[in-house]
Amino acid sequence: xxxxxxxxxxxxxxxxxxxxxxxxxxxxxxxxxxxxxxxxxxxxxxxxxxxxxxxxxxxxxxxxxxxxxxxxxxxxxxxxxxxxxxxxxxxxxxxxxxxxxxxxxxxxxxxxxxxxxxxxxxxxxxxxxxxxxxxx
Amino acid sequence: xxxxxxxxxxxxxxxxxxxxxxxxxxxxxxxxxxxxxxxxxxxxxxxxxxxxxxxxxxxxxxxxxxxxxxxxxxxxxxxxxxxxxxxxxxxxxxxxxxxxxxxxxxxxxxxxxxxxxxxxxxxxxxxxxxxxxxxx
Amino acid sequence: xxxxxxxxxxxxxxxxxxxxxxxxxxxxxxxxxxxxxxxxxxxxxxxxxxxxxxxxxxxxxxxxxxxxxxxxxxxxxxxxxxxxxxxxxxxxxxxxxxxxxxxxxxxxxxxxxxxxxxxxxxxxxxxxxxxxxxxx
Amino acid sequence: xxxxxxxxxxxxxxxxxxxxxxxxxxxxxxxxxxxxxxxxxxxxxxxxxxxxxxxxxxxxxxxxxxxxxxxxxxxxxxxxxxxxxxxxxxxxxxxxxxxxxxxxxxxxxxxxxxxxxxxxxxxxxxxxxxxxxxxx
Amino acid sequence: xxxxxxxxxxxxxxxxxxxxxxxxxxxxxxxxxxxxxxxxxxxxxxxxxxxxxxxxxxxxxxxxxxxxxxxxxxxxxxxxxxxxxxxxxxxxxxxxxxxxxxxxxxxxxxxxxxxxxxxxxxxxxxxxxxxxxxxx
Amino acid sequence: xxxxxxxxxxxxxxxxxxxxxxxxxxxxxxxxxxxxxxxxxxxxxxxxxxxxxxxxxxxxxxxxxxxxxxxxxxxxxxxxxxxxxxxxxxxxxxxxxxxxxxxxxxxxxxxxxxxxxxxxxxxxxxxxxxxxxxxx
Lengths: 136, 136, 136, 136, 136, 136
Fold this sequence. Notes:
Six copies of one chain form a homohexamer.
Chain A: E1 2-15, H1 24-31, E2 40-53, H2 64-79, E3 82-83, H3 84-87, H4 98-113, E4 118-124, E5 129-133
Parallel strand pairs in A: 1-3
Antiparallel strand pairs in A: 1-2, 2-4, 4-5
Helix pairs in contact in A: 2-4
C-alpha cells in the first residue's frame, strides 16, 4: 500500500543566470535582468515528496524526523545562504536555473534515500514560479 | 529529461451558473445561489503547468517571461474584469462552471504553446474549490 | 485586560465601480475596466477583529461560535453571491469600492456586537489589494 | 472528458503515536515526543480530489455542495474535536499516523461516492508535513 | 527610530476548554465540543512582534537568531507536543483558551527580552481563529 | 473618515550583512552566514499601507492602480534583481538589514505620496522574518 509523504523545507541563496561561452550580449538577451553580473537572490522553497510502502506496524512510510534531517544535512547545508554560481561546484558550468537546481536536489535526495523510495522535488523560485522533477 | 514548470496567474470575473433550455425553477434547484440572475463573482487563480524537455544549454523548459506574456495575452486579457456569460463567446451556450473555464484555458494555452509542451491547468474558483484539467 | 480576537470569513460577489451622475466617459476614465457595465467579481475575504475584556472565568473575549454566527447572519447572508450594485440597498447610490464595503461591514457588526466591543474590519478585495476600517 | 475537482476541508483532533504490544521504551524511541501519553494535537487540513467525467449539460464533475456535505457528514463529524486514539474505533489498534488517517479518509469517501469517481486524499498534519493516498 | 520586527513560530498541542468548579453540564453548554474530556488539539502558530530602536551600526532591532532561540527555549520547549491542561502548570486552574495562552506567551517573552523591547503576541489557534495581546 | 488601504508587491535581490569598518572576524561573529562575502538573496515581499480620507464621491482613499504604479516605479525598479550592497547607493555605507531596507522604502513612498497620506511599510525578508516601519 503505497502512500506519498511530503516535507516542506527552504533555503535562501544568490544566483545569476549565465551561460559560459556565450557573449555578454547573448546572455543579456536571453536572461534579461536575471543575468545581472552582481547577482540577485531568492527564498527557495521545496516540497519533497517521498513515495513508499506504509510500514504495517508503525504506519510510517518514512520517519519524518529522519527525512527532515536528511534534507537539512544534504540540501540546506549545501545551498543555504550561498552564492549558487560561485560556491556550489555543480553550477560552475551548469546554469542554476530553477529546473537545474531542482534536478540536482532530486539527484542528491534520491541517492540518499535509496531505491526503496521514489523521490519527487518541487522547487519554488518565487511563490509564482516553480518547477517539479521528475514531471508527472 | 522532462521537467514541469509552473506559473501562477489570476483574473477577476463575474458569472452565473445557468443552463439554457432549462426552466428558471430547474436552474435554481440545480445551481442554488450560483444561479442568481444578477451574477456573482470570483478572484480566479490559475496554476499553469508546462511539461517539456530541459534545454541542455539554458537549463530552461520554457522562458518563464514568455509563458507569463502568453498567459496575459491569451487568457487574462480575454477573461479579466469580464462577465463570463455575456462577454466571453465560448460561454454563450456553455455553462461557465469551474470545470468548463478550466478546459477552455487549457485549449487556448495548449494551442498557443504547441505540441512540444504538455499543458495542465489548475483553476481556483475560491481558495477552497478548484479543479484541474487534464486530470492526472 | 484587553485582548483582540479575530475571525476570518468570506463571500463572493459581483460589482462594478460607477458614480451615479458622472458621464460614462468620466466613469471609464476614473475606474477603467472596473467600470465594466456587465460587472466583474471577487472572492472577498474578511478579518473581523473584536477587542474586549477577557472574561476571568471562561478566558473568552467573546464566544467565537457566536461571533461566527453573527458574521454569517448579518454579513455573509446579505452579501454572498450577490450583485452589490443591484441587490444591496446601501450601494444603490454609494460606489461599492473596497473602502465603502469595509465601512458598511464595520457599521453592521459594531451595531450587532454593541459598545462592549471595539470592531475593526479588514477586507480583502483580492489577495493583493485590501483595506481596513477604522484605520489604526 | 475527465476533470479533477478539489475541495478543502479541515478538522482539529488530539492523537498520540503508539504501537500496542511494544514496550513504553520502544514506543518512546520510535515516536519521540509524538508518543506523549497525554496526547498532543493538530489542525488537520484535507484536499479531497475527485476525478470524473464532466456532465455535458451542467458542466459539473460533481455538485461541490454535495461533496462538501458528504465530507462534513462522513469525515468531519467523525474526526473533528476528537481524540483519535480513544474515540475513533479504527485507531483502537492501528496507529493514527498521518498515513493511516489519510487511508481511512480515502476508504470512507471512495465508498460514499461510488465507483463513478476516483478519490485521492491529501492530508496535512501540519503546514510542513503532509501525505497523499493513493500515491500518484 | 523605532521599528517592529516579527518572527513566526509554532507548536502542536492538545487541550480542552473547561472551567474547574462548573458542573459537566455547564461546561458542555458553554464550550460545546471544545469541552470533550478526551481532548482535541491544534497546530498553534505565533507571530511574535518586538518593537525597539534600530541599532545605528548593525541596523538590527534585535538579532533574529537570538529571538528565534528565545522563542524556542522559553515557549516551544514548554508547549510543543504537550497536553496544555495536564502538563502546563499555568493551566491547572486557568482555562487554556486562545486568549489565555496568548497572554501567557506574552508574559514569558516580555520578561525574557526585558523593558528595552515591547512585545506583542499574535496566536493562531486555527488559520481562521486567532487573537492578539496586548490589543492595539 | 480615515481608511487604510494596502497593496502587496515584491522584488528579488541579493545582499549580505556587513558593517564597514569592522574586521572580517567581527562581521562573521555578528552576522554569521548572512555575512557571506559572495552574497545570498531573498524574495522580498511588501505590504504597503496608506491611510487617508475616503473621497466621498469615488469611495477611494487612493487609486490603487496609481499606488501600484508608484511602487513599481520608485521601489521595484530600484531594488528588483539587484545586489543591494553594490547597486543601491543608500546601502554603500548602511547595512541592508530588513529594518534599514524597510525604512528606505518608507522614505521613498512617503515622499512620493505626500503629506496627505500616512504610509507604513511591512517588509518580509522571508515568510518567517519580517519588519514594519513606523512601528505601531
